[in-house]
Structure of Nickel-dependent lactate racemase:
Amino acid sequence: MAQVSVPYAKSAVTFTIPDENLVGIYESSVHHCQPAADGLALVEEALAHPIGSAPLATLARGKRRAVIIVSDHTRPVPSRAILPPMLRQLREGNPAIDITLLVATGLHRATSADELRQKLGDDIYDHEKIVMHDSRDAASLCFLGILPSGGELWINKLAVDCDLLLAEGFIEPHFFAGFSGGRKSVLPGIAGTATVLANHCSEFIQSPLARTGNLDGNPLHRDMLWAARQARLAFIVNVVINGAKEVIKAFAGDSVAAHDAGCEYLRGLCQIEVPAADIVITSNGGYPLDQNIYQAVKGMTAGEFGSAPGTVIILAAACNDGHGGEQFYRFLADAANPAELLARLAKVPQAETLPDQWESQVLARILSQHQVILLSDQCDPAIIRGLHLEVARTPAEALAKAFAIKGAGARVAVIPDGVSVIATYKTGG
């Protein structure tokens, strides 16, 4: 019998799988990469050799106002390692430059003062000018044209009015934008609500090109790139982090060229090929990403694409905060079945996109093809069932339910962290 652990909350859960059923354990090598130096040194090295751009100090010359888009509390971006070298280089190039840190909240709530201090460190929090983006504050937004999709582009005025727009961030696989980082700092990071909703419309989410690890032809990515160009995003510093949230590689320079280089580097670490399996066990990477079912949908996608219809996906996620969004929950809870909801959402016009519609659409898409068992001993079972998911409180219970569905000889593949991989499936075993 094989003992296989997957992340869960701040620890892990262990599945006991018969050797004859286990086809393998598949994970991104990024988790185990050890940094060659500390994060600050790696960022300094990247800044010393910018990709497709003049150095940051050179860009700062003659500029009056610079804005650095920084990530919010929902992203494990090591801002303490990224921002100090950026700030120093800007001031070396232009001691008089006025710098504002603009927190990219997207549609999230505002980051609290304590969260900001923890993220940025005392020195930056106490001495730098920090502004919180609010996607719903029309007075703080500026119209920049019509996106390729037809949606209106509204972004924060501070970004439009500055002379030099920069962004920090990190790159990881993203379940419909392909990868995080780069252009996402602008859209959805500092965009207006209407712009984000238009970009996350049902047509785009349904596109087979809007998938983990894919940028080519991805309609969301196309809009995001256009938005970043309109906003004149001049320079980025994006990092790749390991399982311990340490920087293992940094990319600095032109917002497109540096991001492309980072994505290709990460692809080489995250791409996995999984043999045909009847049961896929995965997780949302543990805390903080597995605190609710809304976020846990991301991990489920690792068991979706390329796997045969009817594959049972076991997703281990604490979901101690419940569903993660009332609108998200109601979409599915009020639907007769996932297929009915999927068909209904596919007809929603771009201009009528509702908040959290996209997450409900992705979950409905998964459930219309696969059965999902949510392993959680911290979430109300009624909430889980309301979202058309099966409930299991222990790994043994989850496996027993999966084998009851697929048979005693079912093949089991384990992807310990579903949000860190770009998974493809072999056909025929």
Summary: The domain at 33-255 is CATH 3.40.50.11440 (Rossmann fold).
